[in-house]
Amino acid sequence: MEMPPGPMPKGSTNSNNTMMNMMMQMSFYWGKDATILFHGWPDNRLGMYVLALFFVFLLAFAIEVLSILPDVKPTSTNPMLGTLIQTIIYTFRMGFAYLVMLSVMSFNLGIFIAALAGHFVGFFLVKSRALSAPKPTETTSCTVVIPKV
Fold first, then answer.
1. Is the peptide bond before 147 cis (omega within 30 degrees of 0)?
2. 81, 7 in Cβ contact below 8 A?
3. Which residue(s) pair with 108 in the sheet?
4. How many whole angstroms separate alpha carbon 140 and alpha carbon 148?
5. Which of 41, 89, 98, 139 is the 20 to 30 Å CA partner of 147?
6. For the chain, how far is it from start to end, CA to CA, in angstroms?
7. 103: helix, coil or strand?
8. 91/16 Cα distance (integer angstroms)
9. Nearest to residue 120, comparing CAs of 68, 71, 70, 63?
């Protein structure tokens, strides 16, 4: 049975129209016409696309910064409070990681490069600070025994 042309009755769907709306880009592409995280965002305007690039960069950067925070030992004497703080930081880090992953799954090369750049800058700054931090000096005594001949 063929549907007559014209408006669709309420509650019915056109399979071709539904398939076109559900199609998603499955290979990398360039361009500002992307859907990132939410339907209709960044709404195909260049300014919103640049904002989306900056947002993904900041998320990736935050992941790297948050990766060193669990190593920071809490100053309180309550170990449960310290564990709770580390758990909250870890939860935010994982949430940001999932958001970056979902953004990259838009297959937009600009978003992919922004995510890589955020991880690059964040890792570089975090590791350069860690390497430049003074290390505690260890004093060890060593006794050398020389046998008599």
1. no
2. no
3. 29
4. 25
5. 139
6. 109
7. helix
8. 41
9. 63
